[in-house]
Amino acid sequence: MSRRAGSLRRALTATVIAVVGVALATLSASAYVLYSRGQRERFDERIAEAARAAAVLVGRDGIQPSDLEADLLPTLDQSRGATSFQIWNEDGSVLARYPPHPSLLLPAPQPGPPQFETLSQPDGRARRLYRAWLGLGPMGNAASAPRRVGVAVLRETAMLEGRLERLRRILWASTIGTMFLSGILAWLFVHRSVRAVARLSTRIGAIDAYSPGQTLDVEGLPDELRPPFAKVNDLLLRIEQVLNRERQFSADVSHELRTPLAGLRTILEVSSFRERSASEHRATLQEALEVVRQLEAIVENLLALARLGAGQRSEEHREQLDLGDLVDACFRPLGEVAQRRRLQFDNWIGPAMTIVADRVKLRLITSNLLSNSVQYTSEGGSISVESEPTLGVILRVRDSGPPIPESALGKIFDPFFRADRSRAGAGEHFGIGLTLVRGLCESCGYGVTAENEPGGGVAFTITRTP
Amino acid sequence: MRLLLIEDYEPLARSLTQGLKEAGYGVDVAADGETGLALAEKAAYDIVLLDLMLPRVDGFTVLERLRAARSTVGVIILTAREELPDRIKGLDLGADDYVTKPFAFDELLARIRSVLRRRQGLSHNIIEIADLKIDTTARRVERAGHIIALSAREYALVEYLASRYGETVTRAEIVDHVYDFASSPSSNVVDVYIGYLRRKIDREGEVKLIHTHRGLGYSIGGHE
Lengths: 466, 224
Known about the structure:
Chain A is about 50% helix and about 15% strand.
């Protein structure tokens, strides 16, 4: 089963969206992680700073909790209630607390390094807790020994979270928006290319099957799509050429049939022009029959040619043949015409000469060569046939007809080729005879040549090798 | 009327010749363009029936040479080539008509008559001289309403004389236009046929239409 490629437009658009989406999401996620980490660190730093400031304040002797609150709060946060803190003496007694009556009691710091933790509390608001034992340092009363206080600061993270939430939204929106936009752009871009293809397909659909030889305009097509359409142009042109050849062939064929048909019609019409005697009728019928035989020969040749042309491997029936008999048999139907035109016919092939060949094909080859010679040999001329198997010559037909112009020698085997008015023309009622000879020779593996003989006349030679 | 048929396809040439002769025309045949041109020079044909694809000299060239030699003979091209450019070329080269093969023999006869008529400046097929009526289509001659039975040769003779109504026609001209080479008569055969014609056309008590111009020839109509 072949896989369907599906829609190019959809596939490309989806790919672009996916790639843009993945890239932007990764980028946004990394940026967000870095940014939020930094923000959280700064947040923690500020809590720790506030705690240190508180410790410093506490270090001042004689400070009252209410003053402490007033001094400390601005450094902590402007939003009252968002922050609470508690300060312990070394002995664990509470030195100060804010707000004075908190809804929750802050746990005292553990010994050791400062600790940060995130508290998720029943009211659903996230808070950050900082706990540490801080030295008060040798400030204030220099005489007094350094002392330590425990500080716990709890601060709501709503603002930070809000900011981060906004950032997340912006990143999401920009990622999705960019994906959407790039999808549209990709779609439009592909659409443009595909539309050019669609236009071409409309053009192709509108091509007249009988004259396809027009070129499709590949301008406006993406580079990748040009070669296939250039090939289509090529193909159309070749089809047109073949069609033209076929058309010409049909015209030539109908042409070929017209002259004998005209003869037949005139024979019959003239015969019925007035009352005739029985012997006159007999003569007319004889004449008509002669024309019918010519028509048959033309049709037989056409059919044989069509079979060759269609590449049908017609079966070879190779058998032992008496060459001399075959030549005589082929000449017999031409005898009457030859006699009327006082042509001398000599068959020089010896009585014992045999050949292994396809009878039907060799008969057609010989008949056509002889008929060609009978046609072109002037009245009183001569035709002879010989065979030289030792030289690889199966058959040579010589006639005393006018020479074929040198330039036309290679072309006389083309269908309906008219060598020269002197040798071809309307007299050529077997315009495909020589074409058929060549085709048959090719199918048998023989060669065929036409030459003007030094002493005048023309020789057609069938050789064993092409 | 005398025709030259230049056609190389033997069966057609043979049957056409027979048919045309039976239709009362003198017919000579050439099987190639060269012979055709030679014949056309030798005799005064009324019409040349010309095939196009001919050995030696093709039909177009024959036509060209005929017209180049100022020949005004009527030319009907008779060909298997039916393509428009060929028709146009043929007519432009000076052919009077173009008939494609295969054709109906009756139509060819009608076209021959049509070309002859035009050459004689007539617009229809009936020539009337006094009370003599010659229908060239039916090949029928009437005098004062009575049909006169004529042989093919006699008809050809009266038609030729009538086509040159009022003019004196020489015996040689009659031989040229009424006979062909195959049946070329001595000039006294012309006199014999004129005699036959006279007996049938100018009967006793009727105005004489066929006149003898001593030492010159004959005429129909006009004056003695």
